[in-house]
Write a structure and sequence with these properties.
The structure is a single chain. The chain is α/β, with parallel strands linked by helices. It has a domain of 146 residues: 2-Layer Sandwich (Dihydrodipicolinate Reductase, domain 2). It is built from twelve helices and 15 strands. The strands form two sheets. A nine-stranded mixed sheet has the order 14-13-12-11-7-10-9-8-15. The radius of gyration is 20 Å and the shape is globular. The N and C termini lie far apart (56 Å). It binds nicotinamide-adenine-dinucleotide. Nicotinamide-adenine-dinucleotide binds next to helix 3. The site of nicotinamide-adenine-dinucleotide has 18 residues, from helix 3.
Length: 388
């Protein structure tokens, strides 16, 4: 008998199979607070109908299996162009999605996108090390940028990306899809309304067993790190958005059971974070085994939890005394894409702005620093610093 994962069309055990599951849920119209900053000129919708035009840069797994299908459902943005180094991929995307040749670019011709009024937004779906360069070039071409997580390989690169977008007066958002997912939004509402009292402890973890030892995710120069950069970032993000605070102290430990496969990047990391309110977070991430996918939040009057917590779908939640958390399925990528298009139209900052990506990278650098030094790292002021 075929398993649910096999039926999903993904290779069992693959990264895609791990995060792709079935589910139910309704969009909760609750959102994280945004920080308005009116430095940008609104860019009028120039694409057909009222939809903004988006070009995808990097036509790999995520672009092919999640983002392109999501763009068939979006109300405010449409697939207008592609950028790839592989001509055969461009040909196949052109045939499948009816993209005109004038909207297709190679990495060499990428900057000519500046002259293309049909493309308003560029979505960077490349290996992590390429996010900074392609975001900065997009901003200089006058385009708004949605960039996949992790924002870049270093906090310094994140700062340069934010500066480039500000200088070009263009919006920048990071692909933190969970912040548009109704179970997560409900949890955020629990946290803000103190439904279960003040949050005292969060346990969060995300990991999967990684396959092909030759992929870019295991090469430091492309990935910037291992499981932490790739999926641990979801646990980190969740602790930050549920608490609404930045950690003051971070302590971390790394374990490697396969030093050959993981010679360049981290295999498994556990870390703790202390927040100003007294909240303690215990987090884990791994490339060594599947099934770690949880978010447990404990207040002083009860708890709520999601498990699985960070998948593309199938997110399931329950609470100590308020019943299950249950919503109809949504396409997280479609919600994220539409939200960014609206932000661009309305000239306002996304709740998943570049600053959010930068703060995560600063926390990630503190986690690696703690591993290197064997000490607890004091981070409060560093992470909160918004003076770029
Ligand atoms: P992938 O390897 O499937 O695709 C990467 C693409 O980049 C490929 O089309 C490849 O041809 C292209 N590329 C260009 N130069 C390259 C180079 N030098 N080396 C390798 N590839 C090169 O990766 P993916 O899974 O699609 O991930 C892309 C990005 O999306 C990553 O930053 C990843 O963290 C992020 N991601 C986010 C989610 C999410 O849920 N938000 C899920 C998966 C991946």
């Amino acid at each position: 008998m075929r398993s649910a994962l096999q039926n999903s069309g993904s290779k069992p055990g693959s990264r895609r199979a791990f995060v792709k599951k079935t589910a139910t849920s309704t969009v909760l119209a609750s959102a994280l607070g945004t920080t308005p900053f009116a430095i940008l000129n609104p860019q009028a919708a120039r694409s057909d109908g009222n939809k903004l035009g988006i070009a995808l840069v990097g036509l790999g797994n995520l672009a092919t299996h999640q983002i392109a299908p999501a763009l068939a459902k979006t109300k405010h943005v449409r697939l207008a162009g592609v950028v790839s180094g592989t001509p055969s991929k461009i040909e196949s995307w052109r045939n499948q999605y009816g993209i005109p040749a004038k909207n297709c670019y190679s990495y060499e011709t990428y900057d000519r996108i500046a002259d293309n009024p049909e493309i308003d937004i560029i979505y960077i779906v490349l290996p992590n090390s390429m996010h900074a360069e392609y975001t900065i070039r997009a901003a200089r071409s006058g385009k708004h940028v949605l960039c996949e997580k992790p924002m870049a390989n270093s906090a310094k690169d994140c700062e340069e990306m934010i500066t480039a977008c500000r200088q070009a007066k263009r919006r920048l958002a990071i692909g933190y899809r969970c912040q548009f997912e109704p179970h997560h939004l409900r949890c955020l509402q629990f946290a803000r309304e103190r439904t279960f009292g003040a949050l005292k402890m969060i346990e969060a973890g995300f990991g999967f067993r990684i396959g092909d030892p030759n992929q870019w995710r295991l090469k430091h120069r492309y990935a910037g790190g291992g499981a932490l950069m790739d999926v641990g970032i979801y646990a980190l993000q969740a602790c930050r958005y549920l608490s609404g605070e930045e950690p003051t102290h971070i302590a971390a430990m790394e374990t490697k059971t396969d030093p050959v496969k993981f010679s360049e990047v981290d295999e498994s990391i556990t870390w703790t974070m202390t927040f100003p309110s007294g909240l303690n977070c215990y987090c884990s991430t791994t490339y060594a085994l599947s099934g770690i996918n949880r978010l447990n939040a404990h207040g002083d009057q009860g708890w709520f939890r999601l498990n699985p917590a960070f998948s593309y779908s199938g997110i399931t939640g329950t609470t100590s005394n308020a019943g299950p958390i249950h919503y109809s399925p949504i396409d997280q990528f479609a919600a994220e894409l539409d939200d960014f298009a609206i932000c661009v139209r309305e000239d306002r900052e996304s709740k998943v702005s570049g600053l959010e990506g930068l703060k995560d990278l600063r926390a990630i650098e503190a986690i690696y620093q703690s591993i290197r030094t064997g000490r607890t790292v004091q981070v409060a002021e560093t992470i909160s610093d918004t003076t770029l």
